[in-house]
Specification:
The protein is α+β, with helices and mostly antiparallel strands. Helices cover 39% and strands 16% of the residues. The protein has 17 helices and 15 strands. It has helices spanning 2-16, 24-34, 47-50, 54-74, 83-95, 101-114, 116-129, 135-138, 166-174, 244-256, 289-292, 326-341, 409-412, 421-435, 449-455, 467-486, 493-505; strands spanning 142-148, 151-157, 207-211, 214-220, 230-234, 261-263, 280-284, 295-299, 308-312, 318-323, 353-354, 357-358, 360-369, 372-381, 415-418. The strands form three sheets. It has a ten-stranded antiparallel sheet with strand order 3-4-5-7-6-13-14-10-9-8. A three-stranded mixed sheet has the order 1-2-15. Strand 9 (308-312) and strand 10 form a beta hairpin.
Length: 508
């Protein structure tokens, strides 16, 4: 019975805390209205919910929502079926359980009075309970750790973004283009019903925060590539820009939430993120591999002898500065950024500009470690050539069979976010290797053939017990090469000499 689904969903709300006991009848009636029902045969009262274990009802949520949507399709309440339309409708269902923004903001602030950790614990759980973060999809992601000479790298094959069905793709092409909300990061997404070419966000809430004396929003990524993956974004739709205020904003946030790191994508194409049109940062409660990497040689900058600085042992070109005074860190970061923006070194193929187009920028990451604040400044350059049309400091063509996309903030810090296609391709590749099939003759797998021929001779016996771990290890080594390609100064004598020349220029 659909009414049983409604009862179970309201119970879910009561058990998770989304629905107050006083709101049980109100929430039930909202769901009856949504599903065009007039009758409800069950008694009200929250006693039954008290005996339900939260883990059990949370595990049951996908089934409850599926049965409700099956009913909506059958009765014509949902006009179309398919993953996109179901995502739109189940978000509408869940919105019946979610309090208004002001209510959630008050709870967040009440928790913050206890501690910053209490506030984020509340908000992260809330964002999962509302199904804004779809737990049942996120858990599908494949994750493993890959040892390399730079330390362990984190690898994930992202499976939480659903593949659109052909009907929805066709409908999206025909849909009227709307300028509202302007992008996926705009505050106007909060409570938005969505459309076939824009996700529903009725179950989404944004916490307002103040950084650098301006209003910003704090939310979690629905795809959570790592623990408590958050997004901090300007309340105004304004473009990304790495500048003095960027460093101020990063530390303003870290001071308010010292258990979180926060970083920014670079502000130029190729080396920047996927949304350069809206100023935003990403962070979370997670120690990335790059944060674990140690400084291999230190240096000082004239006038900033009180600030510690060094070059990090990392495949990309990273300067780490640290100290107790964030104003001094920001001042030194300004010096490094300004120097890098205008720096050229033909011997290292570093050109600040070509034909008037700027190439140099920085990917910055801020964190607090003990009593010290740290700022990692990753040197980036987006120059292209005929040989490397996607970027000289971008994954080179031989690695595109694994990773072709831009290397943004998350990858820079040592977490590979790999495309979903790799799950099926790697399973097929393992089978082909074990059976001795002709990989080059396979239309899907042929792009991996050179790679397999390169790494397979390094292993004595390859069998069903070790093939999966071999493939995972080799993917990790490919990602290491991806980061080395993206590094401006290569990890060889000539490359590091070039890095030292830039550091020396800071004192000239």
């Amino acid at each position: 019975m659909i009414q049983e689904n409604i009862r179970d969903l309201v119970t879910y709300g009561l058990v998770t805390g989304l629905v107050e006991p006083e709101d049980e009848i109100y929430t039930t009636n909202r769901l009856l209205e949504l599903l065009e029902l007039d009758e409800y045969p069950f008694d009200f009262g929250t006693e039954a919910a008290k005996s339900v274990k939260e883990a059990d009802i949370v595990a049951k949520l996908p089934e409850i929502l599926k049965e409700m949507m099956d009913y909506a399709v059958e009765k014509g309440i949902m006009k179309e079926d398919g993953i996109v339309y179901r995502d739109l409708f189940d978000t509408k269902i869940m919105s019946c359980l979610v309090g208004r923004p002001g209510e959630i903001i008050r709870k967040f602030r009440q928790e913050y009075e206890k501690s910053p950790e209490a506030a984020t614990d509340f908000f992260y759980k809330f964002s999962q309970d509302t199904d804004y973060i779809r737990r049942y999809r996120v858990c599908r992601d494949e994750k493993w750790i890959a040892p390399t000479k730079y330390g362990d790298l984190d690898i994930t094959i992202n499976l939480s973004k659903p593949e659109k069905d052909p009907k929805a793709i066709a409908a999206a092409k025909l849909a009227k283009q709307s300028g509202y909300p302007k992008c996926l990061l705009c505050v106007e997404n909060e409570g938005y019903a969505g459309r076939v070419n824009h996700p529903a966000r009725q179950n989404h809430r944004i916490m307002p925060i103040t950084i650098n004396d301006s209003r910003w929003g704090f939310q979690y990524s629905p795809y959570v590539y790592y623990n408590e993956h958050c997004i901090v974004f300007n309340s105004q739709h304004t473009p990304m820009k790495i500048e003095h205020n960027t460093f101020v904003k990063l530390f303003d946030f870290v001071k308010q939430f010292p258990h979180y790191i926060l970083g920014s994508n670079a502000d130029l194409p190729i080396v920047g993120g996927s949304i350069l049109s809206h100023d935003h940062f990403q962070g979370g409660r997670y120690e990335f591999p790059m944060a674990k990497a140690e400084v291999e040689r230190t240096f000082s900058v004239k006038g900033f002898e009180d600030v510690k600085a060094g070059i990090v042992n990392w495949p990309m070109s990273v300067i780490r500065i640290w100290g107790e005074d964030t104003d001094r860190l920001i001042a030194l970061a300004d010096v490094i950024l300004d120097a890098w923006r205008g720096y050229s070194d033909e011997a290292s193929f570093v050109f600040a500009k070509t034909d008037g187009e700027p190439h140099n920028t920085i990917t910055p990451i801020a964190r607090k470690r003990g009593d010290y604040y740290e700022l990692d400044l990753v040197l980036r350059n987006n120059i292209t050539t005929e040989e490397h049309p996607l970027g000289v400091f971008h994954p080179h063509a031989k690695l595109h069979h694994i990773k072709k996309e831009n290397i943004g903030l998350i990858e820079v810090m040592g977490l590979a976010v790999l495309p979903a296609r790799l799950k099926s391709e790697m399973a097929a590749l393992e089978e082909a290797i074990l059976t001795g099939a002709d990989i080059r003759a396979d239309e899907t797998l042929s792009k991996h053939a050179d790679w397999v021929e390169e790494f397979l001779p390094r292993y004595g016996e390859v069998n069903a017990q070790n093939i999966h771990s071999i493939i995972q290890k080799e993917i990790g080594l490919v990602f290491m090469e991806v980061l080395e390609d993206a590094g401006v100064y290569k990890r060889n004598a000539a490359g590091q000499a070039g890095f030292d020349r830039f550091v020396e220029s800071l004192n000239s």
